[in-house]
Amino acid sequence: MAEGSPKDGNGSKESDSSNEGGLWSGIKALLFGDGESTTLRQELEEALDEYDEEEQDEGASPPAKGDLSAIERQMVRNLLHFSEHTVDDVAVPRADIIAIEEKASFADLAALFAEAGHSRIPVYRDTLDTIVGMVHIRDAFAILAGKSPVPDTLAPLIRQPLYVPESMGALDLLAEMRAKRTHLAIVLDEYSGTEGLLTFEDLVEEIVGDVEDEHDDAPEAMLVPLEGGLWEADARAELDDVAEEIDEKLGDIDEDVDTLGGLAFIIAGRVPEPGEILDHEQSGWKLEILASDGRRVTRLRLHPPVEKVLDEED
Asked: Where is the composition biased (Acidic residues) (predicted)?
């Protein structure tokens, strides 16, 4: 018994210590959360991953009745990550905004609606940094149909869009657009200048994928390989895609620029003109400007370094 007493006493202390540790762990988990616990988002993603792996192992077969199709699963994935985006991530960049000057005539507005195929057109004063509103095509239709007189200025037609900071969450903007029943937002940078533009459709497409109608042009390839190692490119091509598809050195740049057109602007220090050839020193590639409209480059041709051409010939 004498030998058993110390043993029992020690066991009791270990038990008390264990209980205290468990109690403290429980309190910490309650107050600060359990770092090891998975979130509902993670559980859903894991379930989708497992389902995709099983589908690949079993081969492509139609989903069981009531089950999620591949398209539906992709939408769920997009929705799970939608809240991670800011409006700046998904906005139409400033260079691609189609807008009309406040002093323009109604005839100019009607012509722009016909050319652009948009339902809403921003109205600016002097520069795009001062967008004073937007015009909805329904208001223009009423005038074209003769139900309203042709206005002397665009002022009677101007409605107010939303003005939002570039750091705003995409999900927050979607909720605000629904609440205020406004389907166009102007994205502002830190200096209150115009950074881009977003429509309700742009946000929905982040979840369901691109929505194209009968007026949308067929999508064109951003990067097109040519003979001799040359590439023809849309200036909107992302540098990440260019680096992956053509040469990783083309994406190696310190400045805050995302597209080939932006890279051309950085190299030239201005908007380069058609026919100019710019040297990208880091990679040895040459950027030939094929088209620009005075405000931005729209199309380029990429010429490979001499060493790359010689290697391909060998």
From this structure: 47-58
- Give the C-alpha distances (Å, rounded to integers) separating 12 from 1, 9, 18, 23, 25: 16, 5, 10, 16, 20
Spatial separation of the C-alpha atoms in residues 47 and 53, rounded to whole Å: 10
**Percent composition of the chain: helix, strand, coil (DSSP 3-state, to 5):** 45, 20, 35
The domain locations on the chain are 88-208, 223-303
Q: What angle do CA 199, 294, 260 make, to 5 degrees?
A: 65
Class of domain 223-303: alpha beta
Q: Is the pTM of this model over 0.85?
A: no
Q: Whose CA is closest to 286, among 276, 297, 298?
A: 276
User: What confidence tens digit (pLDDT) does each residue in 211-267 have?
Assistant: 665 555 555 788 999 999 999 999 988 898 999 999 999 987 777 788 898 899 999
Q: Residue 292 corresponds to which amino acid?
A: S
Is 88-208's fold the same as 223-303's?
A: no
User: CA nearest 95: which of 290, 264, 277, 250?
Assistant: 264
Structure tokens at 169: 């969450």
Q: Which of 176, 163, 304 is nearest to 228 (CA)?
A: 304
Tokens of 283: 């990679």
- Tens digit of each residue's pLDDT (9 = 90 or more) over 180-219: 999 999 999 988 999 999 999 999 988 887 766 555 555 5
